[in-house]
Amino acid sequence: MIRTVVNFFGDAKYRRRRWWLFLLVLAATLIADFLVERHAGENFWDAIPGWGALIGLISCLAIILFAKGLGHRALMKDEDYYD
């Protein structure tokens, strides 16, 4: 069982399926956000349908880009750094 899951997420031949799975989960999250009843938000953007999914996606991408930038600019060293 675990071998199948590891192969699915690690093998390049499943790339298209992983992409469609990602889009399906993203669409389900967006649709679920439209179905939630909104009573009273603290801010005006709390009433916008899909706001939570959008801000979650943007913040996740920002964290990934920040971590990659930090790793490449500050943390990674050249191969011959210790020579």
- Percent of residues in helices: 55-70%
Largest sheet: none
Shape: flat
Query: How big is the Rg?
Result: 19 Å
Strand content: under 5%
Q: Unreliable runs, pLDDT <50, ≥5 residues?
A: none
H/E element sequence = HHH
Mean pLDDT: 85
Question: Can you walk through the features of this model?
Answer:
By secondary structure, this protein is mostly helical. The chain has one domain. Helix content is 66%, strand content 0%. The chain has three helices and no strands. It has helices at 2-10, 15-35, 51-75.
Write the layout of secondary structure elements.
Elements: H1 2-10, H2 15-35, H3 51-75
List key phrases describing it.
single chain; flat; mainly alpha; 83 residues
Quick rundown:
By secondary structure, the protein is mainly alpha-helical. It has 3 helices and no strands. The protein has helices at 2-10, 15-35, 51-75.
